[in-house]
TrEMBL record:
Ranges of residues in domain HTH cro/C1-type: 8-62
InterPro entries linked to this entry: Cro/C1-type_HTH (IPR001387), Lambda_DNA-bd_dom_sf (IPR010982), Tscrpt_reg_HipB-like (IPR017507)
Name of the protein in its database record: Transcriptional regulator, y4mF family
NCBIfam families listed in its UniProt record: couple_hipB (TIGR03070)
The organism of origin for this protein: Chitinophaga filiformis
Superkingdom of origin organism: Bacteria
Classification via SMART domains: HTH_XRE
One term of GO molecular function: DNA binding
């Protein structure tokens, strides 16, 4: 299971975007983009979904992985 930070960083790079580009395209602050990619653990779900929507994704409930129990 990949972490949110890894997914967002990978998608950003796949699309040839810098953190600054992603900030502008998503309407989110550069600081938040950096914090998310560094593994920030608490953030607003609407902001995460705003960012993920650029890549055709959204945050959804999923079964908890046994590796993280």
């Amino acid at each position: 299971m990949e972490t949110l930070s890894k997914v967002i960083k990978a998608k950003r790079k796949e699309n040839g975007l810098t953190q600054e580009d992603l900030s502008l395209k998503s309407g989110l602050g550069l600081r938040l983009i950096r914090e998310i990619e560094q593994g920030k653990t608490s953030m607003r779900m609407d902001k995460v979904n705003q960012l993920l929507s650029l890549f055709g994704m959204e945050l959804v409930p999923a079964p908890k992985s046994r590796d993280h129990e």
